[in-house]
Amino acid sequence: MANSDNFWTQKRSDGKWESKREGASRASKVSDTQAEAWAYSKDRARDHGGEAYLKNTEGKIRERNTYGKDPFPPKG
Predict the structure, then answer these.
(1) Edge to edge, what strands does the sheet with 17-21 contain?
(2) Please, what sign has the CA dihedral across residues 33, 9, 14, 60?
(3) DSSP string covering the chain, please?
(4) N- to C-terminal Cα distance for the chain?
(5) CA 5 to CA 58: how far, in whole Å?
(6) 66: which strand partners?
(7) Separation of CA 4 from chain center
(8) What is the structure's pLDDT at 70?
(9) In the chain, what are the domain boundaries?
(10) How many whole angstroms separate alpha carbon 36 and alpha carbon 50?
(11) What are the φ/ψ torsions at residue 45 (nearest 5 degrees)?
(12) Would the CA dihedral through 24, 18, 69, 63 be positive or negative?
């Protein structure tokens, strides 16, 4: 199930970078640089108390930031 508080940053087929809310069909913002898109995703995730994910050019998660409720110590 998609969590609409989470935001993903990934490279598009046209070479630009997008910030997209989890479960959305369209990007929230399209940027020329990865840094700009990543900063936007982190800000939005922080505002919503969710998580920000950064995918590398191969589509694997490279970085992840959690905002809001992050239990400590983690379960497991």
Answers:
(1) 29-31, 17-21, 7-11, 51-55, 61-66
(2) positive
(3) ---TT-EEEEE-TTS-EEEEETT-SS-SEEESSHHHHHHHHHHHHHHHT-EEEEE-TTS-EEEEEE-S---SSPP-
(4) 22
(5) 24
(6) 51
(7) 11
(8) 63
(9) 7-66
(10) 19
(11) -65, -40
(12) positive
- What is the token pair recorded at 16? 């630009």
Q: Write the CA distances from 15 to 29, 33, 38, 57, integer angstroms.
A: 14, 9, 15, 10
Q: What is the pLDDT of residues 13-65, one digit of tens each?
A: 999 999 999 999 999 999 999 999 999 999 999 999 999 999 998 999 999 99
